[in-house]
Amino acid sequence: MFASVRHKLHVLGEKYFPEKRLFLRTATETRFVRLSPSIQIIAISGTCAFVGWSIVATAIVLLDSIGSGNFRDQARRDQFIYEERLNSLASERDTRALEALAAQDRFSTALTQVSVMQSELLSSEEQRTELKRGIAVMQSTLRRTMVERDNARNKMIKLAATLDTSDGSMRSENAALEVAATLSYLNDTLKNTAQERDQAELVRATSKENMASLELEMQFLEEKTNRIFRQLEEAMMISVEPLDKMFRNAGLSTKRLLEQVRRGHTGQGGPLSPISFRSQSLETVDPTTKRANNILSQLDKLNIYRIAAEKTPFSMPVKGSFRFTSGYGPRWGKMHRGVDFAAKSRSPIYATADGVVTEAAWGSGYGRAVYVKHAFGIETRYAHLAKIRVKKGQRVSRGQRIGDMGNSGRSTGTHLHYEIRVNGKDVNPMTYIKAARNVF
Length: 440
Description:
Layout: H1 2-16, E1 20-25, E2 30-35, H2 37-165, H3 169-249, H4 254-264, H5 287-311, E3 323-326, E4 329-331, E5 334-336, E6 339-342, E7 348-350, E8 355-362, E9 368-373, E10 378-388, E11 395-396, E12 401-405, E13 416-422, E14 425-427, H6 429-435
Helix pairs in contact: 2-3, 3-5, 4-5
């Protein structure tokens, strides 16, 4: 059966590919090469396979070149847009910071003026109270003097009657002297009382005018203070809300974060300390002081967020021209626990937050690697470096150069493998980078 099938194939081959001979002639002899149907079929099949493979390979190379060019152009455009947005956001942030500082200066000036005006108002209130007390005393003295005057008049009438009925000249003379002395005392007392009354009326009128002027100044100052408070409150809202949103988007608890930073910075006093003005009539904080303390609390929160942002890896480890080559997640059947950035060899690698270097050595598959320990249980890792520029135990700041991009360890090309771990568990670094995209 096998021989029959072979014979049929041979006959079919002879029909479409008859046997051919290739003659080779030299000066002395002639030879030929016999090309059987099977050899012709094999040669034609091989030629077709080679041509097909060449066409497919060329198409793949051309498509890859076109795709890579488009991707690079798109990456450049995205990078340019991103840098422009960063520059505009940085400019706006600086402008808001300057406005906040200027508003804080105006707020301090307004508080000083409020303090001075409150002191003057309290002094005027004390003077008015003393004036009321003095007028009351003078009125009492005047009433007592009038009573004494009436008594003296009655006494004088009685003495005059006595003089009319008295027989002794010595007695009349003594009574007259006594009456004259009493009248002189009464006249002096009434004169002094009238002068004190006129002076008290003058002081009262002057104090009334001063009080009206102080009330107008206080109203003007209150309007000015309200305007300054509104500007400060708006500036605080614009400054604090994006930072609060940034930490929440990064998966951090803002309440726990604020508590941790406050525990590490426990000093008291300074311009951000709460104001403790209290009214003398009521043992409660007045609305102005409460409003000022709220603004100071927001300023303190903003300052804490600034400290926390420096200790949290929100910035990019690579600057300048680079290409994002691999993301966080499963890759080739394994978990890729970071992100990869490709750039030219020896490109600078920067620390993404303040921290302490815990490892700066060769790390098997990581090659030359740097581990940095940050606050809040966060650690960043930078792998496949060409050169390490820090030492173990060294304290680094955000934006400080810690190494050069390379191809050490298990790597297929020059790139940086960047990881973020929180309490020992890996997280997606792009979560932190995207959270800060509209802030820094």
